[in-house]
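Q: Here's a chain of 114 amino acids. Please give me its 3D structure as tokens.
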Amino acid sequence: MPPALQPASADPLGAKFAALADPTRRAILQRLAHGETSVKELAAPFEMSLPAVSKHLKVLERAGLIARSRDAQWRPCRIEPDALRDVDDWLEKYRRLWEAGLDRLDKYLAENKE
């Protein structure tokens, strides 16, 4: 099955990166980093319908980045901060590679400056 058609559970890291690729979803996560809020409150700053915001929330939820619950008529959303840990771990590997390469470049330039 092509990666784009695989369920999020087959590639959780890929699902998170796909969810984070959209600026609206990143803005939603940024808002949720300040605390739990309702779908209606999340939708307020965006020029889109509630169903459109709901679709974004479903992508974030399938990726495991947010959780939604129901309390009577209030449907709060909250960020799942631990869900970003594997994204950070993956990025850290590449950060170390880049830093090591830059350190080697600095050393090379310092040696050849003289």
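Q: Can you summarize the key feature?
A: DSSP finds five helices and three strands in the chain.
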